[in-house]
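U., I forgot to send this yesterday:
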Amino acid sequence: MDKFNNMRVFCRIVELGTFSAVARELKCSTMMISKYMAQLEASLGVVLLNRTTRSLSLTSAGEAYYHRSRQLLEDLADLEAATGQMGERIKGHIKVSAPIDFGGMYMVPVIERFLLTYPEIKILMTLDNKPPNLRIGNFDISLLVTDTLDPGVVARKIAETELCTYASPAYLSEQGTPQHIEDLSDHRCLHYVDTPHGDYWLFNVAGELQRIKVDWLLASNNGRALCQAAALGMGIVRAPRLSAAPHLQNGELVEILKDYQRPALAVYATYLQRRFYPAKLTAFVEFLLDYFGK
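Result:
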């Protein structure tokens, strides 16, 4: 019996939630995953997982074993990575998750520069506004535009952007310019979904955050699409300045309700806390800090 293999399988079951998901990841049968778990529990003499036809849950012994096993496996991976990189060039794959707008508008030039510097690196970038669970292992690094962070991750601030309210000059000429946030109820709104705030827009009112529920005409998880709609005169949009920048530069959008602007949102590079960080990850994070710092 390969104890380390069975330990890895157990940890992936906890992280992915089902035997079948682990079987797909490891390209083997669900029956084989069940066999690995049976071997592990038999060798330990305890039940690690409560199994029903619909769900899995950790026993108290399983909870303790998972956390210690995860640390041991991470330490082993760190040791192998550190040893393998001695005297070698930085190389390998980096899996990156980034928000749709930030990744699509700003990350490609960064990656192009980085790959010129480190030609033996390959980068897989996935664009999604929903932050991934880094513990699952699908990503090495997650870029977030946020004002809240989950515990258990390292967060390096690489940039920041204001969250502002915009409309086209043509729309404001036809519909009037709102002077107070309460006036938004009389306007067509373009809503950015996939945020923690649901159907609400948050504003700074005398130093305190106030939520306004908007009756939106168009909603999307793509800020660039919403800004384009606003530039066409379809309504008022609330979006990060980084998404609106091209339309602001050519005058298609103007900022309104400036007195209610919230503090800037930070753009973070986040990754799991570890004792040792692979050289490829360290190089990429430091490159991001330097690029956006300039």
